[in-house]
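Reopening: Acyl-CoA thioesterase still failing for me.
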Amino acid sequence: MEKKFVRETRCFKVARVFPTDVNNHDTLFGGKLMSYIDDIASISASKLCRASAVTASTDSVDFLQPIRQTDSVSLESFVTYTGRTSMEIFVKVIREDLLSGERKIAATSFLTFVALGEDNRPMEVPQIVPETEEEKKLFETADERALMRKHRRAESKKFADYLLTTYPWE
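Support: Ran it again with your exact input. Result attached.
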C-alpha cells in the first residue's frame, strides 16, 4: 500500500462568528463548532484515501477557550494516524480576536473515519508519514488514543444492551 505525507491531508477553514452563530452566553454554539470539525475532518479523510469516508467516532472535542462574536474561528485538520481501513484525524481550532489580533487555541478534537470502497465496504488506506514535530508527536501518541477508543467503544456496546428502545408514550 502506498504512503502519504500528513501535509497531503491538511485542510483549513476560516469563518467569522455572526450573531446567529452564538448562544445565550454570546459564544459560538458548541454544535456549530462540532459541525465545522466533522466537515473539515471528512475532507482530510477523503484526501488521504481519495474515496468516500465516514465518521466512525468523534473521539473527543475539548473546548478550551470561548469563541466570541469579535473573533474569527480557524480550523486546521490532518490525518495523524492510519490503521488498515481507518484513520485518526486531528482538528485544531484557533480563535482570533479580530480587534486585537490575539490568537488562542480554542478547541482540539480527534475523530476516527473509515474509508469506503465503491461497494460501500471498508477499504485499505495509505499509511501516513509525519514530518513536522507537531505531526510526529501526534503520530507517536496515537496508539494510546487508539487503546482508549477501543475500550470506550467496547464499554458503549455493553452499555447499549441496557438501553430501552421503546418510546415513553408507548
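The beta strands are 3-5, 11-16, 52-63, 71-82, 86-97, 103-116, 127-129. If you still see a failure, please send the error message rather than a screenshot.
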